[in-house]
Amino acid sequence: MPVVLRGVLSAPYRIVGIKPSRMNPNTCTFCELMFSKVMKATKITIDATILFADLRAYTSLSQSLSASEMGGVLDIFYDECAAAIWEHDGLLNKTIGDAVMAVFNFPIKQDDHPTKAVLAARDIQRRCAAKRPEFDALLGGSGGEIGVGIGISCGELSFGEFGRSHRDLTAIGTVVNTAARAQSAATPGEILVTEAVYERARAELAGSTCKPYELKGFAQTVSLYAA
Asked: Residue 27: its pLDDT value, please?
């Protein structure tokens, strides 16, 4: 039976606690609970795309702005990232300080998940650029400038609950590490994707330039494409 998530017909579902998931509002909290329980029982290997987006200049700005001002900056950043990720049916898996991590192709299946991630990344950059006046108002006379660096990688990874004393529902593996390192290498306003993403999203990445990068933790240089 389909669950109505929005509009007047959603009222009976909301009364019993069924509403849009905070990880992806295109799924419901009941779906989130069920797949969380499944993940507690097993770890699965999936083909997926990982996106990391990081707010640049956060550390330096946090030294000149108040906690409430920095909170306002993060609120805008998280909201715009979430909207872009959900627009392309990604799962907002984590917010980590000044960064977000998203998974594409789980739990909503997408044959073109690398393309979806690239489109979401571009949407994040557009949305954050459009919020420049709000960022500037919060920054006041600090002289700082907000930018976002994004890294994307795809392939097989493990998804499930990891840890003992503290259980964490997330993705792990080389794909995740590579996306995180690509994000670290990206300059403000830049999107860097791995060769695997480039091969599977060529239509969106035509004309992209490739450069070798020395990424922390990788013995050999890694080719990344500017998206």
From this structure: 56
